[in-house]
Design goal:
Elements (H helix, E strand, L loop, with lengths): L4 E7 L3 H12 L8 E8 L6 H13 L5 E6 L4 H12 L4 E6 L2 E3 L3 H9 L4 E12 L12 E2 L5 E3 L4 E3 L5 E2 L9 E5 H6 L19 H6 L8 E14 L6 H23 L5 H10 L1 H10 L7 H18 L1 H7 L24
Parallel strand pairs: 1-2, 1-4, 2-3, 6-12
Antiparallel strand pairs: 4-11, 5-12, 6-11, 7-8, 8-9, 10-12
């Protein structure tokens, strides 16, 4: 278990949460010589000044910690930041962390144990919510409860499927607490586009799931480890209509992107009707059973999907962007803004 770990973090305008994250990673059970942290400031509004001050503070406090900070000035969403950080990584194992999470002291140690099994290609862990304010009771309505007593909330990137290490399907592997063998990642097509907002929102794709789908093709297992535990901050704005409208509009964009990327073209009228019929039952169920603004979440999905499909049909350059197989070396700085009135997630 001598493999070195590279922890990858991308950050954007969240220095206070980032400090908690870095503190937790600086206080791991394993020796600091066994891992490095690569932090990418993703064009924060102060041009990375707060991140720079914080990085220097952490290095001064933990002089043996190998913290590398990169400042990204170009548009590229989180995808370019992730690829850039992994390209610079010296580790045999890549651990991906969110700037708003707090790692348990045994997180990196548990990762090393998991990868001592050579059949394992990727590992994800438990993400326990830290709510900024007490959550509303309707949170249960968006929580998926599992037969084994576990649960997950996709909208908040929260997951806890129990105390047993087990194989897990790729849709449940969230970037926020995720790891992969570096040599396996190097063979793969990388992350899909993710993390765009504002007039770049339609350039989003399916992020880590673009990559997660590929892992089994190389003969590796994907597993969940309860010892790989982190706490994930869930801020109060995530309980608002504005957040959910942006989130589900984003899901619609992702659905459209995945379909275009798979078959290299927009949906036909028949395919669009089949898609709309496939979510019609959920729409009706939400109208009856969901509280408040959640009744309309699938309408926002449809809006995102139809807007994205329309754009790809009318703009050949955008269509070609959605058809790309590997975004590792893609020059996102060439993307042109697309007028958008919808709020973004980031």
């Amino acid at each position: 278990m001598s493999d070195k770990i590279s922890v990858i973090i991308t950050t954007h305008n969240r220095p206070k949460l980032l400090e908690d994250c870095l503190e937790s990673l600086a206080n791991q059970n394993i020796n600091k010589s066994q891992y490095e942290i690569i932090l990418v400031d993703n064009y924060s509004k102060d041009n990375g000044k707060s991140t720079d001050i914080l990085s220097n503070k952490i290095i001064k406090k933990y002089p043996s910690l190998n913290l590398i900070t990169i400042y990204q000035k170009d548009i590229g969403g989180m995808t370019h930041s992730r690829h850039l950080a992994i390209e610079k990584a010296n580790g045999d194992i890549i651990v991906c962390a969110d700037d708003d999470y707090v790692a348990s002291c045994g997180l990196l140690e548990s990762v090393k144990v998991c990868f001592s099994d050579k059949t394992v290609g990727a590992v994800c862990g438990r993400l326990i919510p830290i709510y900024e304010v007490p959550p509303p009771s309707w949170i249960r309505k968006i929580t998926t409860f599992l037969p084994n007593g576990g649960y997950y909330i996709t909208d908040f990137s929260v997951i806890d499927i129990g105390n047993k290490k087990q194989d897990i399907s790729w849709p449940y592997m969230f970037w926020s607490n995720w790891s992969i063998r570096k040599d396996l990642f190097d063979k793969m097509n990388g992350f899909g586009p993710d993390g765009f907002s504002g007039d770049y929102i339609f350039y989003n794709g399916n992020g880590e799931h673009f990559l997660n789908k590929e892992i089994s093709k190389y003969g590796y297992r994907t597993i969940y480890s309860p010892e790989m535990t982190a706490w994930h901050h869930v801020l109060s704005y995530r309980f608002t209509k504005k957040y959910f409208e942006a989130r589900y509009f984003h899901y619609g964009i992702v659905n459209s992107f995945e379909k275009i990327n798979a078959k290299k073209n927009v949906d036909t009228l028949k395919e669009k009707l089949i898609y709309l019929l496939s979510i019609n039952f959920q729409m009706l169920r939400d109208l009856i059973k969901m509280p408040y603004f959640l009744k309309f979440r699938m309408f926002w999905v449809v809006k995102g999907y139809l807007n994205h499909q329309k754009l790809a049909k009318e703009n050949s350059s955008f269509l070609n962007y959605c058809k790309i197989k590997n975004y590792k070396k893609y020059n996102f700085s060439n993307l042109l803004p697309i007028k958008n009135k919808k709020p973004g997630l980031w």
